[in-house]
Amino acid sequence: MTFDIRPLRESDLPEADRIYRLAFGTFMGLPDPMAFAAGADSIGTRWRAPACNAAFGAFEGETLVGSNYVANWGSFGFFGPLTVRPDYWSKGIAQRLLEPTMDTFANWGVRQAGLFTFPNSPKHLGLYQKYDFWPQRLIALTAKKVSGEVAASAAFEGSRAELIAAARAMSDTMYPGLDVSGEIDAVLDQKLGEIVTVRDGASIGAFAVCHVGPGSEAGPKAVYIKFAAAREGKHFGALLTACEALAARRGMSAVTAGVNTACHAAYRKMLAQGYRTQFTGVAMQRGNGAGYLAPDAFVLGDWR
To answer: What is the pLDDT of residue 202?
Structure first.
């Protein structure tokens, strides 16, 4: 078989989304594989944010059989979801998709790269180790039910440019060059959710990039914290509460977030505030580097 790897077109998105659900739903043994991530959009939202994402498809002729997505967070990058149509598994397509992925990291000049995968799958671990990605700590995908009113923090007072500058300054202290401004723009431009902030005097002590409800990466009735960072534990706790207030205000029933257990203080803080693990993955990082993960780092981001 001959496969062509090229950037995804908008017309490819419905089939890319179908393969994404079918592949994960099949791997996880769901009775209806297409029910995986129902109501959420992790494919179209990323394709429509080219400033922080790249998307590649694997084609047999004109038939799409797999895809991969590459995220640019400044000096850090990650890839996924990488999915292949189940009847094309074990044909080397994932490796073909990883070739432009590695080239993209090089072109972007990222200093560190990572991914989320299944810790119980030797096949996945073995594939990514071929590209110098090595398994590290577990990623806990957590959720907390929200009901009634929750006290909210004051909204950020300033322009989008000022918000992005403040967020960039904070993330840069965690890892030089770490920058999720593209994710902020994607949420605001596509109206996927909101950016939640916690004040620290004249500046911000924490911020969260939140997807809200169907059509975003959150899915129905949920707020999904795609990335969050805080200067100190007190700011992090206040940020979680503010995200819960967002969920209550928008009529959502839960807040979901992924936390790398390497960030021990953040993980324990989430447990203390009522977040419970629903599913676990494992983080793999190139060269087995630490990146921005540290025991005292108050940061959220699961790299799915």
So the answer is: 77
Classify domain 4-110 at the CATH topology level.
Aminopeptidase (3.40.630)
Q: Which residue has the higher pLDDT, 151 or 282?
A: 282
Q: Where in the chain is the domain with CATH 3.40.630.30?
A: 4-110, 142-300
User: Does residue 151 carry a pLDDT above 90?
Assistant: no
- CA of 65: how far to CAs of 10, 15, 104, in Å? 15, 9, 21
Give the β-pairing of 112-117 and 193-200: unpaired
Three-class SS state of 130 = coil
Tell me the C-alpha distance between 48 and 53, whole Å.
8
Spatial separation of the C-alpha atoms in residues 209 and 184, rounded to whole Å: 6
* CA distances for 184 relative to 179, 188, 280, angstroms: 10, 6, 26
Fold of 142-300: Aminopeptidase (3.40.630)
Report pLDDT digits (tens) over 48-103: 999 999 999 999 999 999 999 999 999 999 999 999 999 999 999 999 999 999 99
40, 46, 230, 237, 239 from 234: Cα distances, Å: 31, 32, 9, 5, 9
Those residues whose C-beta lies under 8 Å from the C-beta of residue 175, and which sit 6 or more positions away, are 75, 76, 112, 291, 292
| pLDDT (0 to 100) of residue 158 | 86
Contacting residues for 8 by C-beta, under 8 A, at least 6 apart: 16, 47, 55, 56, 57, 67
